Amino acid sequence: MNSLTSVAITGVGESEYGRVLEPPLFDLIANAARKAIEDAGLSPADIDGFASTPGVPPADELAAAIGVKERRFTAQASVAGAGTVGAAQLAQLAISAGLSKHVLVYYGIKTSRPGGAYAFHAADPHKADLEMPLGFYGQPLYFAALAQRYRHEYGLTDEQLGEVPVAARAWARMTPGSQKQDPLTLDDYLENPVIATPFRKLDCCLNSDGAAAYVVSSLEAARDLPNPPAVVAGVGFGALPVTLSEMFTQNPDLIQFAGHISSKRAYEQAGLGPEDVDFAEIYDCFTISVLLQMEELGLCGRGEAASFVEGGRIGPGGDMPVNTHGGHMSNAYIPGTNHVVEAVRQIRGVRGEAQVKDAEVGVIAGLGGNEHATMVLTVDG
Q1: 139-167 pLDDT, tens per residue?
Q2: Which of 17, 150, 267, 333 is catalytic?
Q3: Interval 56-110: pLDDT, tens
Q4: 283 is an active site residue
Q5: pLDDT, tens digit, for every residue of 279-308?
Q6: DSSP-assigned letter for residue 5
Q7: pTM above 0.85, yes or no
Q8: Alpha-carbon gap, residue 51 to 116, rounded angstroms
Q9: Active-site residue, 333 included
Q10: Which residues does residue 322 pair with via DSSP β-bridges, in sequence order?
C-alpha cells in the first residue's frame, strides 16, 4: 500500500429492496445507515464523516435524523456507480488527513417515482434537445448499440449474453432479500422478448426502491471492532475525456469505459493484480457492461469476455465468480452500493452457501458513464 492511512470497511447495511416500496427514500437511506453503523459495532455518535453522490438527501439532514453529534467531514463523489464505489477514496483521504474517524457512505434510489431511473437522463439538455425527439433515448438503446459494436468487433452470441443474467439469478437465489429469486435457465433467457437488438428484457437491470450504506474506518480502529476488517487495499478513479452527455453517442471508442484507468490505479495502490482476484462485483446495468468491465479489470483480454463467461464460469462453482449476490439484474438496482455490501460479506466469509471458497481478494467495479471507480478489498493480514 502507499503512504495513505490504511482503511477498512467496518459496517454494511441495506434497507428492504423492492420494485415499489411505500417508505420515502429518506427513510430507506436512514434505515440502511443505522444498520451499517450497528453492524460496525458503533453508535451514530461515532460517525463524524459523510460521503455520498449527487441526488441523495444531504448529509446534514441524514446526520440529524440518525443522531450524529459532530459532522467534521462531508463530501460528494461522482454520479452513482462510480460515485458510490469511489466514495471510499474520499473516506480514505479524510481519515488519512485526520479529518474524520468513521465515514458513512450512503446511497438510495426510488425508480418507482415518476420518470423512474430515466428521469436522471431526461434532465440532460443535450439528450432532451437532440436525441429524445428522434427516439434514441432509453438506456437499453444506448447499451444495445455498444453490444452491437462489440459483436461486430469480436463476435457475440445471444447465448453468451445470456450467461450473465443466468449466473446472476443463480447467485440471487442464494441471497435473502433479492428481488428476483425464481429459477432462470439459458432456454428461459432465449425465450425472453427482444426489446433492443440484441438485448432481451433480461439483459437489463431491475427497477428498484431501496438503499444501502457502508462505514469506512482506519484499519487500526477496525481491528478493535466486532467484524473482521474488509481492508480497502486500493481504490482508483478514472474518467474519459468526454462528458456524460456525449458518452454513449460521441465516445471515440464506443466500447471503452474508464475502468482500465481506475482499475490500474486501484491495483497499483493495493500492490495486487487481476491474477490475485478471487471474485468480482461488477456494475451490471446491462449485460454488455459486465463483459466490457471484465476486460477493463484485466480478468480477461480485450474481446475475450464473451467466450470467457461460457459454461457458467461466472456463476456458482465457476472459477471467476461475478456478482455473487445477483447484482443489479437479480438482487437490486442500488447503483454500485449493494455490490460493496456483498464484497464485504464475502471477505468476512459469512455468505453461507453463496460464499466463495478462500475469498481473500475481491474487486468492485462502479460505472458512472464517462467515469469509473474500482475498489480492491482484501482480508486483513
Answers
A1: 999 999 999 999 999 999 999 999 999 99
A2: 333
A3: 999 999 999 999 999 999 999 999 999 999 999 999 999 999 999 999 999 999 9
A4: yes
A5: 999 999 999 999 999 999 999 999 999 999
A6: P
A7: yes
A8: 24
A9: yes
A10: 280
Q: Say if residues 291 and 365 touch (Cβ distance below 8 Å).
A: no
3-state SS, 284-316, equals: CCEHHHHHHHHHHCCCCCCCCHHHHCHHHCCCC
In CATH terms, the fold of domain 7-113+206-378 is: Peroxisomal Thiolase; Chain A, domain 1 (3.40.47)
Helix, coil or strand: residue 274: helix
Could you give the CA distance from residue 156 to residue 184 in angstroms, rounded to a whole number?
A: 21
What is the distance of C-alpha 29 from the center of its chain? 16
List the alpha helices (DSSP H) in the chain: 25-39, 59-66, 82-96, 118-122, 125-126, 139-154, 158-172, 186-191, 219-222, 247-250, 259-270, 287-296, 305-308, 337-348
Rounded distance, CA 214 to CA 198, Å? 36
Q: Where are the domains of the chain?
A: 7-113+206-378
Q: Which residues contact 371 (CB under 8 A, 6 or more apart)?
A: 78, 79, 82, 83, 86, 237, 238, 239, 240, 244, 258
Greatest CA separation found in the chain?
Answer: 58
CA neighbours closer than 13 Å in the CB half-sphere of residue 39: 26
